[in-house]
Design a protein that fits this description.
about 400 residues; mainly alpha; 3 strands
């Protein structure tokens, strides 16, 4: 991070000079204003050296900060602050004990910002790849209300839930992925090795081949003759798909399609709604206003389609409509959820009831994941049966005919 030399005026007009490490001149100005110094001149002096900052090659192979790292950081911060340890001393202790080099650098940067008089939430905002908008918002509320330790405790619970949801989704998609890979490998082996071996036998026998066999041979010839083009086409399609989904409209369309995928779409949909309900409940309990809460929660759900529905709710609340009415217009919640929102809004316990909504969706996701294998097995059995039938009729039927011809001779 670069180092800036500054000149400014203090509260009594005295000249103040020094150096600060920050991302840019605007960040330096913010730090000075926070400490009561009015900046007059800010100049870049040098990039930070001798601080243990790794080179680009080391950063390339360095382990990234994971969700588990952030979760443990939140838990440790809660424990230290709950015990009455000052925040700077707590960060110093975490920096010394951190095993992850990247996390150690982030904590060191937080300490530098706090030493300069900036708030913790402001310092965290400089690391969006580690601390999400939702995370920073909850920390900001904790600072404002004087309950920063409780804010970290709630964030730990939320991140733990987030990790469980991700692990459940990975578990749900692991079996179908393995089956698709195995079936694809089997098709490749059949087209590149099995069918070409039988073609030589069929050509030497001069036996009329069934239509299905001729189709398999033509397909195999296509694979053998044009496999570089086919591989290139598949890679181009994958790259094009990734590029398309990185655009705003492309991601929106793909996120909408994901929710309609048979079996898996239902799990993704319910897990996403559980994430929304849990985050909204946490924001409400932390004291975040509903409009601001919906804004930060919209960025948490990790689905552009549902994110726009949540933003639609926020716009309705800004117009003075109730949460229930805006939730109905999104057409994404079940009647049971809408009824719980109505009761929560009427009784003033919306945070508790949204937590119950999250629990309900979590139970449904857990049940569907446990029964996923049972639901997928019939589909996989049918697909494998069709492949075996095609191979049996297309490859072995001509061999049986060849055997009959040889016996008649």
């Amino acid at each position: 991070m670069p180092v800036f030399a500054y000149r400014g005026r203090g509260a009594r007009g005295e000249l103040v000079t020094g150096t600060l490490e920050a991302a840019d001149q605007g960040a330096v100005a913010d730090q000075l204003l926070t400490t009561g110094v009015t900046p007059v001149d800010i100049k870049l002096t040098q990039a930070k050296t001798g601080s243990g900052e790794p080179g680009w090659l080391a950063k390339l192979f360095e382990p990234r900060i994971t969700l588990v790292d952030t979760m443990l950081f939140s838990r440790q911060m809660y424990t230290l602050l709950k015990a009455g340890v000052p925040i700077l001393r707590a960060l110093a202790g975490l920096q010394e004990s951190a095993i992850q080099p990247a996390l150690r650098r982030v904590i060191a940067d937080l300490r530098v910002s706090l030493d300069a008089g900036r708030e913790l939430s402001t310092a965290m905002r400089q690391h969006p790849d580690v601390f999400s908008t939702f995370y920073v918002s909850v920390v900001r509320v904790g600072e404002t209300t004087g309950q920063l330790d409780e804010a970290f405790n709630r964030l730990f619970g939320y991140l733990e839930f987030e990790r469980e949801v991700r692990e459940r989704i990975k578990t749900a998609l692991r079996y179908p992925t393995i089956v698709v890979v195995v079936v694809s490998a089997a098709i490749a082996i059949v087209n590149f090795a099995v069918i070409p071996a039988f073609v030589k036998v069929f050509e030497a026998s001069k036996v009329p081949l069934p239509l299905l066999t001729r189709v398999l041979i033509a397909t195999s010839d296509l694979f053998l003759a044009y496999w570089p083009l086919l591989v290139g086409g598949i890679l181009a399609a994958i790259i094009g798909f990734i590029a398309y989904t990185r655009t705003e409209q492309g991601r929106y369309n793909w996120d909408r399609v994901k929710l309609r995928i048979p079996i898996a779409g239902s799990i993704i949909f319910k897990a996403t709604l559980a994430r929304f309900a849990r985050a909204f409940s946490l924001a409400s309990r932390a004291g975040v206003p509903i409009v601001q809460g919906l804004t930060v929660v919209a960025s948490v759900v990790d689905n552009s389609y549902l994110s726009r529905r949540i933003e639609q709710m926020r716009e309705g609340v800004e117009r003075g409509e109730s949460v229930l009415r805006t939730a109905v217009t999104t057409a994404v919640f079940t009647p049971v959820v809408l009824q719980m929102i109505a009761v929560g809004e009427e009784t003033g316990e919306l945070d508790d009831l949204m937590s119950e909504v999250a629990d309900m969706y979590e139970r449904e996701v857990d049940y569907e994941i446990r029964t996923l294998a049972t639901n997928i097995e019939p589909i996989i059995t049918i697909i494998l049966g069709i492949l075996v039938l095609i191979l049996a009729l297309g490859v072995f039927l001509p061999i049986w005919q060849l055997g009959k011809v040889m016996l008649t001779k």
